[in-house]
Amino acid sequence: MSETLRFTIRYSDGGDGWVMAQVEEVPGAISQGRTRAEARENVVDALRLMLKPEPGDVPGPDRETLELPLAS
Question: What pTM was computed for the model?
Fold first, then answer.
Protein backbone atom coordinates (compact mmCIF):
# COMPACT_ATOMS: atom_id res chain seq x y z
CA MET A 1 0.00 0.00 0.00
CA SER A 2 1.47 3.33 -1.03
CA GLU A 3 0.40 6.53 0.68
CA THR A 4 1.31 10.07 -0.19
CA LEU A 5 1.38 13.02 2.14
CA ARG A 6 0.15 16.08 0.24
CA PHE A 7 0.83 19.72 1.00
CA THR A 8 -0.27 22.95 -0.64
CA ILE A 9 2.33 25.58 -1.49
CA ARG A 10 0.95 29.10 -1.81
CA TYR A 11 3.03 31.58 -3.81
CA SER A 12 2.89 35.34 -3.47
CA ASP A 13 4.84 38.39 -4.53
CA GLY A 14 7.58 39.09 -2.01
CA GLY A 15 8.50 42.44 -3.54
CA ASP A 16 11.75 43.51 -5.15
CA GLY A 17 11.63 40.54 -7.53
CA TRP A 18 11.28 37.85 -4.85
CA VAL A 19 8.68 35.07 -4.82
CA MET A 20 7.37 33.96 -1.42
CA ALA A 21 6.32 30.34 -0.86
CA GLN A 22 4.39 29.01 2.13
CA VAL A 23 3.19 25.51 2.98
CA GLU A 24 -0.41 26.18 4.00
CA GLU A 25 -0.77 23.11 6.22
CA VAL A 26 2.41 23.81 8.23
CA PRO A 27 2.55 27.21 9.91
CA GLY A 28 6.06 28.59 9.77
CA ALA A 29 7.12 26.67 6.65
CA ILE A 30 7.85 29.80 4.63
CA SER A 31 10.69 30.69 2.29
CA GLN A 32 11.48 32.74 -0.77
CA GLY A 33 13.44 32.69 -4.00
CA ARG A 34 14.20 34.78 -7.05
CA THR A 35 12.01 32.44 -9.15
CA ARG A 36 8.99 30.28 -8.39
CA ALA A 37 11.13 27.16 -8.85
CA GLU A 38 13.75 28.45 -6.40
CA ALA A 39 11.06 29.44 -3.88
CA ARG A 40 9.55 25.95 -4.16
CA GLU A 41 12.91 24.26 -3.61
CA ASN A 42 13.62 26.50 -0.61
CA VAL A 43 10.23 25.95 1.04
CA VAL A 44 10.53 22.17 0.59
CA ASP A 45 13.92 22.36 2.34
CA ALA A 46 12.33 24.43 5.12
CA LEU A 47 9.55 21.86 5.51
CA ARG A 48 12.04 19.00 5.72
CA LEU A 49 14.01 20.85 8.41
CA MET A 50 10.85 21.55 10.40
CA LEU A 51 9.75 17.91 10.28
CA LYS A 52 13.18 16.41 10.99
CA PRO A 53 13.38 14.86 14.46
CA GLU A 54 15.68 16.44 17.02
CA PRO A 55 18.89 14.53 17.79
CA GLY A 56 18.24 12.19 20.69
CA ASP A 57 14.55 11.75 19.89
CA VAL A 58 14.10 8.00 20.02
CA PRO A 59 11.01 5.82 20.14
CA GLY A 60 9.99 4.58 23.56
CA PRO A 61 6.97 2.92 25.15
CA ASP A 62 4.85 6.00 24.49
CA ARG A 63 6.40 6.99 21.13
CA GLU A 64 6.87 5.46 17.71
CA THR A 65 8.61 6.47 14.52
CA LEU A 66 6.41 7.45 11.58
CA GLU A 67 8.03 7.57 8.15
CA LEU A 68 6.20 9.25 5.26
CA PRO A 69 7.80 9.63 1.85
CA LEU A 70 7.76 13.19 0.50
CA ALA A 71 7.80 13.67 -3.23
CA SER A 72 10.18 16.33 -4.45
Answer: 0.74
